[in-house]
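User: Structure tokens for both sequences below?

Assistant:
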Amino acid sequence: MSILKASQAISKETKLDKLLTVLLETVIENAGAQYGFIVLKNLFDDNLYVEAIKSKNDEIKIMDSTPISDKLDVCLEVLQTVIRTKEHIVIEDALKDQHYQYNEYIKSMNVRSVLCAPIIHQSDLKGIIYLENNLTDNAFSIKQLEVIKMLSSQIALSIEKAQLSQALIKIKETQKQLVQSEKMASLGNLVAGVAHEINTPLGVSVTAVSHMIRTTENIIKSYNDDNISKSELEEYLNDSMETIELLFMNLNKSASLVNGFKRVSADMSNEDLRAFNFNKYIKDILLSLSPKLKKYKHKIEVVCDEDMEIYSYPGVYSQIITNLLINSITHAYNEDDEGNIEIKVLRDANNIKLVYSDDGKGMDSETKSKIFEPFFTTNRLTGTGLGMHIVFNLVTQTLKGTITCESSPSKGTEFVIEFTVD
């Protein structure tokens, strides 16, 4: 294969596994090797790993960053010398070479010809190509080495481009998993909070029913003994009515909590479009968050037309408002502060403007500029740095809208979210 064809074959591949396969096939075909492998420097830890091997049965295998070790079929002495010196090594006949003839690998594998060439770009070792031929001596000529040298920069650039592309894909996958974990963590906190909150009215209801059972048993006994007075019966009826009212109030509270939780949790776990009342839904979100919000003294005001119906993704608004509230609680106020938070929704035809504001600590310009960056947080003890990044992605990607932030120290923070609905 000509240098031009080899360069074209290498440069057109952008996926790392395909690039390594083409690269190994190209150099082995060009050099006439039986066996070979490619070692690359890792982008993240700067260590060298075996990334692709052509075995002696002609199969090319992608190794997924396998550490260099004694288990690898290679003359480690040759490999380590090239790593140290960044210079190529060509061995005409390893069994007779004064430096390597006593090497255990050379003797046991009956190695004849070896070519080991560094992949250099801007004086930096990017990787190594190692080739063997055990059938004949002098298998690798200076001409073949020169081809590899000439292709070295092209190889290094193509590999780096492919590595960066692969790293970006992995980072995006990891980010997606972290965002999903954050959503599930929020849902888990919601479940735990509602379970704790619902325990109080249910506990009162159980106590009320227990009391009613005892008083009813007593009144039945008195009736059976023909020993019941009108005043006792009236007292029992009055007591029963009070108990029933108490039961109704607490069970109704429990039902409201459960229904609100069902709506919000179901919407948080899927992204289905549906019509809903925006005002009522915001209040459902606040109700589901009440176990957490009641620990603080903040006043939360909702300004939204009570009849505002929209057709959109309710789960998205649940996550947005929840994360904005958690952000205020975590970062805007001290534990004993009595803050004021406002959620205002304005509609002009199909255009919606959601303005979220608090009167907390506010942010300086540097913090504000990083507010939507993943993993950025001013409170590493309680924050993951993903909440506002999730908000940004939901607004810009799912709602196809915009979000802006205005804030300054001691003057609170305001987020303005604008989007359109059908």
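Moving on to the next sequence.
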Amino acid sequence: MSIMSRSLRSSGSGQRSRNTKGLASRSVFRSPPANSRHLMQFRVVNSLSWSFGAVLALAGCTQPSRTNYAPAEPDDSNSTASSDSGGASSSSAGTQSSNGSSTSGSKVTNNTTSGSDTSSSSSDTGSTGTGGNGAVGTEGSNSSGGGGGHDGSTDEPGPKVVSPCNTDPASVGVWENVTPPGIGRAAAFVINPLDTANLYLGTNGFGVMKSEDCGASWTRIDDGASQVEGDSAAPSWTMAIDFVDPNVIYMNNGYGILGLFKSVDGGVSWKQLLTGDAASVFIFGGFVEHVSMDPTNHLHLTVTPHFTCEAPHDPNCLLESYDGGESWTVVEGTPGIGEAGGQHMINDKLWYWGNPWGAFFRSKDGGKSWTQVLDQGTGFREVLKASDGNWYAPSQFGLIWSTDDGETWAPLANAPTADTMVEGDGKLFTARWGQNSYAWASLDDVTTWTALPSPTPDTEFGAWLIRYDEDHHILYSTNEGNGFWRMVMEVED
């Protein structure tokens, strides 16, 4: 069924580009044991945070500082997650050679004994480890061994199942409000890649919600004692789910106890990953903006701060982990961060950096250096490698695209403005947060766009994030204060 509405046409400008490079340095350390829970609380007035974020974003790239951390004593305690089927994990030891502008530092790992791997996680579809620690060594390039599995994970996802959702044919093309009862806001959510009927939703102070029927019904699954949500003012706006072991989920906590949390049991219990030195890198002791997972290595994570990093680090930096958050490296000299900006990893080396108020950057060496590829900002840190062979990114000035594997970028003619986008069933879908507008185009003709209706007329809370479930042909949208919505695009006979 196609949804006919007015056509969106906005002219695109020619490509504008200038090249700048920022050199990055890295510091590697281990935070204290996870049982020393980070309890810092800090509240920031939202109206001030937006203006502060815009100022920081305009700062762009800065020259990095170089910081070395002295080796810390290894923690003697071991932490192991139970598994019905056993766990597989990797460990490595040795020294990595320095490359480019990286600065070597000492690396120690959280919750494990140096030189041995004692961490594992469980999954109903095949368990995998959260990364071995390896011996204390130095961090340099990612190509000469050591460093906790930098060559990538060899773990394979378990079997995929498609559970039924029982969608109503009468609902095709109509937004359905599937917000869990009593939930004030909805921003971050993830879809289980091995069973797409299962959704996980972050909330404001109401715990972690799970649906097993495409949002039709919900259950709070966190145990309360170790719940992510610290208070009613603490939203979760970024999440990542492990594509090998979907029981492993990462989630932030904003304007509350802060930090990045990890669950290895499908959202029931959670562990703080940013403790000690790792927490001190970001402003206010662990204020997280965005977590990104390498689609080629499920143990490789990068995390950006909400606004900025703390001295003595470069104000523009990020944290990187190759063992599922058990240890962290500081990558300094990133592009300007601000609010709603950050990184998107294509693989171990190729990263993109978007910022709604800044420019669009690329790194081909895993964050060591950055090149501005377009002076047009992008929305919400997304880069889409579509099935038509082209690459796309949302922008408040209209979509941008690349027809040469991400090498050069330009505005896409007639494309709508957008903050978030997704591909599904041969179509591109876009949404704009501030305008609460939605549109779609066929990949056969990406210059012709058709508007979709908005779930609500309220433009204060538009689409924060959209995702598409091709198994059940459903478009999902979180709209912050206006809840969580879905639109069934087609129903199979």
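User: Anything stand out in the second?

Assistant: Residues 17-153+244-375 form one domain.
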